[in-house]
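thread: overnight batch results

M.L. [08:02]
morning all. the overnight job finished for the chain we discussed friday. pasting input first so we're all looking at the same thing
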Amino acid sequence: MSLVTIDTTKPFEQALRESTHYPLAATRITVLQVNVGKLCNQTCHHCHVDAGPDRREQMSRETAELCIRVLAETGIPTLDITGGAPELNPNFRWLVERGRALGRKVIDRTNLSVLLLPSQADLAGFLASRQVEVMASLPYYLEVHHDSQRGEGAFQKALDGLRKLNQSGYGQPGSGLALNLVYNPTGAFLPPQQRGLEADFKRELQRRFGIVFNSLFTITNMPISRFLEFLRRSGNYERYLSKLVQAYNPSTLEGVMCRYTLSVGWDGTLYDCDFNQMLELPLKNGYGHHIRDFQTDLLDSRLIAVGQHCYGCTAGSGSSCRGAVVP
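M.L. [08:03]
and the structure it wrote out:
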């Protein structure tokens, strides 16, 4: 029996050419994902944004207004607000209120510990009253694994944040307030099967801490920024990249997030996805490069800029801001 040799140096562009989805193109923008800045109250080891308390990049009101104008002038149904800790941007609540006033679904991507800051004492109630969907990052349901990624004491803060959300109705049956958890591995490996992991999280968080939530989404760690630094320091860089390439699954190309999401940087620059944003990989020429240049007819069907990091979103079951791409 002959062995199949996998070329782990194959450019993603070549892998894409061998699929039925070349060239990779957007199908229609249904999510406007707005990164309002890199300021964060935590410094996580895996963070591809390189966010932290010392970062000063913040979206201005002027740029936030341009984002709302795009929503008002289009049928884009979802405003997805991320960071950093997006709640620390002074325009965060204004964005939430304007998005909801337009009848859009609004998502807040939170690190949970931000809910404990004195300045955010009313945050859980604010989010609940506006029916904001909460996407909360939680690396694991055991303290040792969680804190290895987030730092000592982060797990207890995350639990307290989850309790505040539960007390405000989030995750409770019949409340209509969606609380979803986001899991990414604590090391140089792919996430496990999403459905089984969700069952584990629901069972253990309920049994150990009395915490409930709606869904869990798995996201593959991308070899970008701090996680890239970790891979190099630990000697896992080549092995991890090989793992992503070997796990490449072309069936994920149908639903990767860049096909329905447009990412807006803190300064208004447009990108195909959050990962391209962090790599400063702009839209292809001809589509406009700033939110002020937004043109629905061009961007809805634009060709996607790709690179080697795209193996991360197409490995195994795939990875997107809504978790696994294929069952």
